[in-house]
Structures are given as structure tokens and as C-alpha cells.
Specification:
The protein is α+β, with helices and mostly antiparallel strands. It has a single domain (about 85-335, about 370-460), classed as Cytochrome P450 (Cytochrome p450). It contains 19 helices and twelve strands. The strands form four sheets. A five-stranded mixed sheet has the order 1-2-8-5-3. It has a three-stranded antiparallel sheet with strand order 4-12-9. Helix 9 runs antiparallel to helix 11 and helix 13 (about 250-280) crosses helix 16. The longest helix has about 30 residues, at about 250-280. It is globular and about 60 Å long.
Length: about 475
């Protein structure tokens, strides 16, 4: 393809109006621009180069396959430093990013990850046991409780005691404040980030962050002292890990990566699970097929079997496709001129791969607004067509763990309960900090599930051996 000297066409909307629409109508913001300008368009900025939004699979392949020194991504995330810390993997670029990524990846794969299956099942049962049959409850709050307990046990080895309760309560409060409509705007309007004392929202955030910091550093010191006790929590594994030069992570590096895991691995999975239960009730035939698959494997099946269930996997995949929790992959800043889809991108150009638009291209996903898990049983999608966890060297290191957790929570709950929405009207995602989520007030009712005898039905693709 012959390169052109100009960036793709795009909207020239006043910055304030554009940001307000992005904040309060995030999906319409992207859809409206795509309708007018197509797969690739430029959002022009008053000062500096434009931001080019790409969603065509060819463009995404070129971006994700580019050399890591072609652009910076950490630099574009500096607004998260106040929360995650300067050493967070998300904020790193170049060799340091690669070095950190290699050190952090092993605990989220293989046998170590699968060992968490029983813990996920146990925590899910504990939380769901608190539901009163026939009484409405907020589904998102329950999913947040499950995912927070899972992350505290997996990362810190904490599941009870005073320290567990303190960290749980402060993290929940911090994320709730940051997910409120007012504080969601603070990520995009820095003037809101004003510390006006303990009674101001930003002052509360800073105070809670300091309290959480103290707890985390205390735990780091404790785990270092217990290093020879063969603990398997992720913090202990991170302390034991060594860079290529034999050095270990500093307390500051450990702290910042732990905050990254806590923030990125808790809220996002809770949102995805909330959507999965929403869709299972909105589309009864999906719920029935999934229930049949779970009935067939019986109660308390081997964790490895749950992870491989085809229809359960497809439901999780379709959940993350239709409303991805993060609508775009990490923004990249071009460091040296490059060509994407025939466009010459000068130094300083911002590249924004759009997950949401890629997941709703009609050429790839016919009837993309319909929830149809069968899509993922009928064909395999490339990592440039389906990318809920981003792509390239910036793909989420917790991807396998998040998918594993989703399957176990869904299987555990749906094997025991049928969940029904109190209000049957369709809902749309709302902004929660930097992510999109189902409305926090969405309520469901649980009733015991009726077991039934089931036989394999290959026509429905429920029990076909499939690798995902």
C-alpha cells in the first residue's frame, strides 16, 4: 500500500465537548466517529500531533507486531502514577518494561495458576452462600467481593484476619470513590485532582492510598522474613524472582506492581462477571445451553475440566467481546516515523487501538450487538480481530488468570443458582474510572437450580473437544 503524507480524516470538535461525550457517552463517542470516518480516524488536538484511532485488523497487526522501540506506551499512562506508583509495569517502556514483564509473567501461567482453582471455587461459594433465595441483591457488589477476596488470597496469601479486613475495606472504599461519576472525570480533567482535606474526594483518595501503602509495605517486610517457608502467593514468588543480573525487586518495585495487580485484576474481572450473568438472563437459550453443559460434568468437577468446557469458554469470550471492560488498548506514542495502513505517522503521534470498534466490525462479527457465544464455536478469531486484553508486548499479563477466574466463578454459581434480573429492561455500560461497567445498582434474584439429566449434544457444540 502506498503511504500518504496525511493522517486519516477525523472530527474537529472542541476539546471540552469531545471529552464530555467521551466521559458520559463513551460507546456513542466511538460509534459516531466510526460511522462517519470508517475504521481509522484522527482525533485532532489543539496543541501537538493528533491521536489516530485504528480498528482495522491489518492496522492492529502492524501496531502490535512493530518493534518495541518504535513507540512508547508507558509514557502515555503517566496519569496513573498517583495510584500505581512510578515503577508500575503499565508505566514502563523499553528494556525496563521487558525486564519487568519477564519477571512478573510466570505466576500467572501453568500449574501455579491452576492451583488457584479450588480457592476461587471456595470463595465463590462463601459469597453466594450469603444470598437469600428470592431476595434481590446487587450483583456487581457480590462479584467485587469475590474478585477482591480471590486477588487478596492469590497475591498476598490473605483470606482472614485483621490485616485482610483492613486491606479489603480500604481497597473497596478507594475503588468505589474513584469509580464515582465525579472522580471518573478526574482522570481527564486534572484540575479536579485537588487535595482539599480529608473531607474532599481527592483528599480521601490520597489518604486511603497512604493507608493502603502502609499495609502493603508491612506485608512485603513480613513475606521477606518468611521467604524460606515455601509460600505460593504471588508476592512471595515475586520476592523470590530474580532479574537476569541476579538482582531481586526492591520494596518500591514490589509495592507498585502489587498495586497494579490489585487495581487491574479486581475491578475488571468483577465487571466482566456482572455482564456474563446479565447476558445469561437476557438470552435464556444461552443460559440453558450453559446449564446443560455444567449439568453434564456434575458437581465439583476437576479444575482442568472446567477450564476446557467449550460453551462456558465461548460465553466468557462473547461477554468480553460485546462490551470490553476497557474500550481501547494502551495508547502508543510514536518515537520514530512509521507507516500504518498506508498513513505516515510522524514522531509524537498518538496511536489508539480501539478494542470496542474492532469487536463490532460487521465484516468480522455479523449482528455484532447480539450476544451469540456460538461465534467462538464456529471459527477462530485472530488476535487482531478479538483483543479484550490488548495486544503486542502490552497485552495484559493477567489474561489467563482472568479468564480462568471467570470460568470458575460462573460454573460454581450457575451449578447452584439461576440468577434473574429484577428489571428486564436492557442496560448500557456506564463509566467507572477508566473502565466501562454495568450499572452498580443492577439487582438480581437467586433461586436454586433444578438439576437435570443430560447427554452430549454435538449439534449444539456443547461437549465437543475444542481448544481455545
Amino acid at each position: 500500500m502506498t503511504a500518504t503524507n496525511s493522517l486519516p480524516d477525523g472530527p474537529k470538535v472542541p476539546t471540552f465537548l469531545r471529552r464530555m461525550k467521551f466521559l458520559f457517552q463513551p460507546l456513542k463517542y466511538m460509534e459516531d466517529f466510526a460511522k462517519v470516518y470508517g475504521d481509522n480516524f484522527t482525533i485532532w488536538r489543539r496543541n501537538g500531533p493528533g491521536m489516530v484511532v485504528f480498528s482495522h485488523p491489518q492496522a492492529l497487526q502492524q501496531i502490535f507486531a512493530a518493534a518495541s522501540d518504535q513507540f512508547d506506551a508507558g509514557r502515555a499512562n503517566k496519569g496513573l502514577q498517583f495510584l500505581l506508583g512510578a515503577n508500575s509495569l503499565i508505566l514502563q517502556d523499553g528494556d525496563r518494561h521487558q525486564r519487568q514483564r519477564q519477571l512478573l509473567t510466570p505466576p500467572f501461567h501453568g500449574e501455579r495458576m491452576r492451583a488457584y482453582g479450588e480457592a476461587i471455587r471456595e470463595i465463590t461459594q462463601q459469597v453466594s452462600n450469603e444470598w437469600s433465595v428470592g431476595q434481590p441483591f446487587k450483583i456487581r457488589a457480590s462479584m467485587q467481593e469475590i474478585t477482591l477476596r480471590v486477588i487478596l488470597r492469590a497475591v498476598f496469601g490473605l483470606d482472614e484476619g485483621e490485616r485482610f479486613q483492613e486491606l479489603r475495606q480500604r481497597l473497596t472504599k478507594l475503588l468505589d470513590i474513584m469509580g464515582s461519576p465525579l472522580m471518573s472525570t478526574a482522570f481527564f480533567f486534572p484540575f479536579i485532582q485537588k487535595d482539599l482535606g480529608a473531607w474532599s474526594p481527592w483528599g480521601q483518595i490520597l489518604q486511603l492510598r497512604q493507608q493502603i501503602d502502609e499495609l502493603i509495605y508491612e506485608l512485603i517486610r513480613e513475606r521477606r522474613a518468611e521467604l524460606n517457608q515455601n509460600r505460593q502467593d504471588i508476592l512471595s514468588l515475586m520476592i523470590s524472582a530474580r532479574y537476569a543480573d541476579g538482582q531481586s525487586m526492591t520494596d518500591e518495585e514490589l509495592h507498585d506492581e502489587l498495586m497494579t495487580l490489585l487495581v487491574a485484576g479486581h475491578e475488571t474481572t468483577a465487571s466482566a462477571l456482572t455482564w456474563a450473568f446479565y447476558w445469561c438472563d437476557r438470552v435464556p437459550e444461552v443460559r440453558d445451553k450453559l446449564q446443560a453443559e455444567l449439568d453434564f460434568v456434575g458437581d465439583n468437577p476437576d479444575p482442568s475440566l472446567i477450564a476446557k468446557l467449550p460453551y462456558l469458554t465461548a460465553v466468557c469470550q462473547e461477554t468480553l467481546r460485546i462490551y470490553p471492560i476497557v474500550t481501547g488498548a494502551f495508547v502508543r506514542v510514536v518515537k520514530s516515523p512509521m507507516v500504518v495502513m498506508g498513513y505516515n505517522l510522524p514522531v509524537g503521534t498518538l496511536i489508539a487501538p480501539s478494542i470496542y470498534l474492532a469487536h463490532h466490525r460487521k465484516e468480522v462479527y455479523p449482528d455484532s450487538k447480539q450476544f451469540k457465544p456460538e461465534r467462538f464455536l464456529e471459527r477462530l478469531f485472530s488476535p487482531y480481530e478479538y483483543l479484550p486484553f490488548g495486544g503486542g508486548n502490552r497485552r495484559c499479563i493477567g489474561m489467563a488468570f482472568a479468564q480462568y477466574e471467570m470460568k470458575f466463578v460462573l460454573a460454581t454459581i450457575l451449578s447452584r443458582f439461576q440468577l434473574s434480573l429484577m428489571n428486564k429492561r436492557p442496560v448500557r455500560p456506564v463509566r467507572r474510572g477508566l473502565t466501562l461497567a454495568a450499572p452498580g445498582g443492577m439487582r438480581m434474584v437467586a433461586k436454586p437450580v433444578v438439576k437435570r439429566a443430560t447427554t452430549p449434544n454435538t449439534k449444539d457444540n456443547l461437549f465437543v473437544k475444542t481448544t481455545f
